[in-house]
Amino acid sequence: MVSEYIERVIQQVIARDPDQPEFQQAVREVLTTLDPVIKEHPEIEEHAILERIVEPDRVIMFRVPWTDDQGRVHVNRGFRVQFNNAIGPYKGGLRFHPSVTLSIIKFLGFEQIYKNALTGIPMGGGKGGSDFDPKGKSDAEVMRFCQSFMSELYRHIGANMDVPAGDIGVGGREIGYLFGMWKKITKSWEGVLTGKGYGWGGSLGRPEATGYGLVYFLEEMLKANGETVKGKTVLVSGSGNVAQYASQKVMELGGTVVTLSDSSGTVYIPDGLTQEMWEFVMELKNVRRGRIKELAEKFDGVEYHAGEKPWKFKADIALPSATQNEILGDDARKLIENGVIAVAEGANMPSNLEAIELYLKNNILYGPAKAANAGGVAVSGLEMSQNAQFTNWTFEQVDKKLQDIMKNIFEESRKAAEEYGHPGNYLMGANIAGFLKVARAMIDQGVQ
Ligand code: NDP
Ligand code: 2IT
């Protein structure tokens, strides 16, 4: 039973945003773990921190009209949710996917507040995007869309105000088009977006950061429990940015990746992903923008399972790296039956509340998204630092900082879980550690 205060705030959110299931889910996930903190720190309720933290500073919604290659005009909806800037400028990605709604952007922005706090870099929480579907669009169409999107978004962002980056459907290509338009409108050159290309303000190591950081976090979590990635079999879902570099790092550390997926299906690779297959996936997904089933068509011994998720296959570790709610209760039960020892989340909110409960009950090592995938935004923070200093760091410098940040996030999550009476519950630890940094800043800064 959580405290009356927490339950009351959750009910207020449900009453106020009845049509936002993903946002409600994220609020419930975070708030229910804060119970011991609320009890120990009555000032949180006195200052109405929970009531304030669930309400974004502002929500910006706008029309994004664009013209396709045949001259037809289309209209999409654009979003930027500036959630909380108590500890630094709003920071968080942009998602372009047909499933994007205000609920999705709010859940992502809400999670981002605590994730960014955990990195130790002064960044607030925000998120944005559009229901635009980049699939099957030409480069010129994507460019026109990005230009139109930025022709409104530019009013709301700034290097010290709000710094967007990539997420699903937004990678180096889109950041390039967005940055080009921002620069043209403002005639400035500032680090107003991260994930830029190397040579025009991008940081070495940013493309790799989320996937590598995920595996660094996983390795810390395993080490603390007498295990290691070496020799383990790993289910990876997705085959985009996060999945690609998580797979590469797993292979480098001596683990075996046995699945990848996309929204059409899963490839099962009983003997493990090889370097040659990995390079094929990089070209397939980042250049040709094709479907993962081509991996099975190209390589012997790779099976394609149309419409399936990776979770039914036997392995030691699961790294969900595609999208929200991709592991439901039944999927979690399959993982547990198959003897999975650890789940670390590359995607945001990939496990629903039932799945999380099952991990915790069954002593699965669980690395929650806001801790495990914080490497991406952490290196975005490093990109902002480099831009502000007009300098570039080497890959080795960035990678070392990323490793230190991921170790630190694990340590902070581990310690907070212990301190508040739930050792080994890294979800609780991460939520508490992230939340306290932001709550203290909000109290210091007065009611607003
Ligand atoms: P990409 O667009 O590069 O890749 C997304 C992958 O997930 C693709 O394989 C895609 O398949 C699959 N996918 C997307 N939506 C769905 C869906 N509804 N059902 C099934 N599969 C789906 O995105 P990223 O790799 O950047 O992002 C993946 C996850 O990681 C997201 O949850 C994102 O929020 C999170 N994340 C990303 C960070 C980053 O730095 N990029 C940082 C932290 C978290 P298909 O090609 O068929 O669409
Ligand atoms: O979910 C995330 O943390 C991201 N998509 C990365 C955000 C960022 O600003 O780099």
Overview of this structure, please?
The protein has 448 residues and is an alpha/beta fold. Among the domains are: 56-186, Leucine Dehydrogenase, chain A, domain 1 (Rossmann fold, 3-Layer(aba) Sandwich), CATH 3.40.50.10860; 207-363, 3-Layer(aba) Sandwich (Rossmann fold), CATH 3.40.50.720. Helices cover 49% and strands 15% of the residues. The protein has 18 helices and 12 strands. It has helices at 4-16, 21-32, 35-40, 43-46, 49-53, 102-119, 139-153, 172-186, 206-223, 241-252, 275-288, 293-298, 329-337, 353-361, 369-372, 375-388, 395-419, 426-445; strands spanning 58-67, 73-84, 90-96, 124-130, 162-165, 233-236, 256-262, 265-268, 303-306, 317-319, 342-344, 365-367. The strands form 2 sheets. Strands 9-8-7-6-10-11-12 form a 7-stranded mixed β-sheet, sandwiched between helices. Strand 7 and strand 8 form a beta hairpin. The longest helix has 25 residues, at 395-419. NADPH dihydro-nicotinamide-adenine-dinucleotide phosphate binds next to helix 10.
